[in-house]
Amino acid sequence: MESTPALALSVVRDRGQARVAALGPHPEPRLLLRTLLEALLPLDEAAREDGRVAPAFRSWTALHPAVTPGLRSDTAQLVEFIAGLLPSAPASAAAAGLLGEPGNTPSPGLS
User: Fold this and answer.
1) What is the DSSP letter of 106?
2) In the chain, is it the N or the C terminus that has fewer CB atoms within a 10 Å radius of its CB?
């Protein structure tokens, strides 16, 4: 039998997969990224429920460290996937744009 925290996390994962599946077989990277990021925001009751699951699950894993390696692997895969959706630019150029260094215009909202 699956534990309650693991079951709750699987519900969150299923909701996320349903959001992505609703985009169709080959969504544009920008739409896919937006959908993934919007899922993290507490915009409706389901998203607020999902948001409460993560900290509860983290607390549970502190007492059940055997599940941690699998979660780290899943998290690394998700981070790699999301990074692959982002446009690439040299890190120094991107950072300079964010920081508003001389000769660069700061990004909107960061000035």
Assistant:
1) P
2) N
